[in-house]
Design brief:
With 84 residues, this protein is α+β, with helices and mostly antiparallel strands. The chain has a single domain, classed as SH3 type barrels. The chain contains two helices and five strands, in the order βαββββα. A five-stranded antiparallel sheet has the order 4-3-2-1-5. Strand 3 and strand 4 form a beta hairpin. The longest helix has 14 residues.
């Protein structure tokens, strides 16, 4: 999945993010994709840096596959709750 810098996403770890996490984020946390000065840009080799939604402060490095667009995540959650 390709992510966009400045976009808000929901973190749900997959693959190495579950096996060897480079952050202490919990599943379901809303994050903002950021670029860190002097580091590879977002989407390089399927990874990106994430930051706090309010401050943009660096939180960690994650796989882009571990991120879901915020609007899509909300829509999926409402669909699942209506099925119950």
């Amino acid at each position: 999945m390709k992510v966009f810098v400045g976009g808000h996403y929901v973190y749900n770890p997959v693959g190495y993010d579950m096996f060897d996490p480079k952050t202490k984020l919990l599943a379901g946390t809303v994050v903002k994709v950021i670029n860190v000065y002097g580091c590879p840009k977002a989407n390089t080799m399927g990874h990106c840096y994430v930051g706090d939604v309010k401050t943009g402060k660096f939180i960690g490095l994650v796989w882009t596959m571990s991120l879901t667009k915020l609007a899509k995540a909300k829509r999926e959650k409402s669909t699942q709750s209506s099925l119950l």
